[in-house]
Amino acid sequence: MAPPPDVYTVVSVVNAATVEVTDPRGARKTVQVLGVKAPAASGCFAPESVAWATTQLLNQRVTLTSLTATATDLTASLALADGSDYATRALQTGYVRAADAAVSALRTAEAQAHAAAVGLWAPPCAGDIDHPAPAPAPAPAKPKVTTTEAEPAPAPTEDESDSGSAPYYPNCAAARAAHAAPLYRGEPGYSSKLDRDNDGVACE
């Protein structure tokens, strides 16, 4: 009967495909998650990917399978405490992409996220995790609003009126302010322009 696999504790998340663990003896190793690749450090969706992986893995106990070891690093699949495969979960939710040599099960998980346009498959990344997010389109320029200063009232002039030369009232408000309204045809200040109904009485 094979001994149970060692359980490791995740002590640091470098990115969604690279973590640091300690083994049961306290030795610290870097683990590359088998079959996935995370967004580049400056790539589109990198902050969201790291934040999600940190929530999923930091201080969690994981089991490593399909282990390939070097002096300091490991390449392995990560089984979470509930028995689920971390790489599959990360691919289904769109936080990593499948590596070139990923097995078909991982590629199927990635295809699900791609079809649903979730995570890094949604705009603006659209699956491109090797380049920074494209700059947002500039907002349309607001139309320039120009204000036209009111033209000064014309200087009092001799009005073309039935009364010849007379005080000039540009409107009925001015005539009323001067206590001259109503104005009758023939009186000083009367103007046909102020007599709308042309009955001989302006500013009634």
UniProtKB/TrEMBL annotation:
Biased composition annotated in UniProt, kind: Low complexity: 142-152
Region (Disordered): 129-169, 184-204
Top-level taxon of the source organism: Bacteria
Signal peptide range in chain numbering: none
Domain TNase-like: 4-123
InterPro entries: Excalibur_Ca-bd_domain, SNase_OB-fold_sf, Staphylococal_nuclease_OB-fold
Domain Excalibur calcium-binding: 168-204
Biased amino acid composition, Basic and acidic residues: 193-204
Protein name from the UniProt record: Nuclease
Organism per entry: Amycolatopsis bartoniae
